[in-house]
Structure formats: C-alpha cells, structure tokens
Amino acid sequence: MAAEQRPLNEVVFLTVAEVATVMRVSKMTVYRLVHSGHLPAIRVGRSFRVPEQAVHDYLRESYVGVESA
C-alpha cells in the first residue's frame, strides 16, 4: 500500500536531518530535492517532514545499475 493511501497515523515521517543521514547527503541537498518536487514533504511550522516510504521510493527509482563489460 502506498504512503498516500495509508492512514496518516501509520506513516513514519523523517526530519530533513534524518533523511540526509539515510541518503548520506547534506541537508541542503534534501532541501533542494524537496523544493524541486523530487521528494514529497509536508511543512510543519517552519520545518519539513518527509514520509519514510518516499525516501525509499526515491532511492529505488534513482538507482543506476552498472553493466559489466
């Protein structure tokens, strides 16, 4: 079941810092992904929260396989 279809009380939200740690990138990179629309997020006050499943989906879709020669 997709995160959009799950009840909100079952969705795990991550902070920008937590997403950056999972993805091993800077917080600024996460902010750029959120602002560009590549990574969905909700705004809570002045901060963002990203559904954990969205991070996994983004990484899965961004995976680049390397063919052996």
TrEMBL record:
Entries under InterPro entries matching the protein: DNA-bd_dom_put_sf, HTH_17, SinI_DNA-bd
Family annotation (Pfam families): HTH_17
Organism superkingdom: Bacteria
Domain Helix-turn-helix: 13-61
Molecular-function GO term, any one: DNA binding
Name of protein: Transcriptional regulator
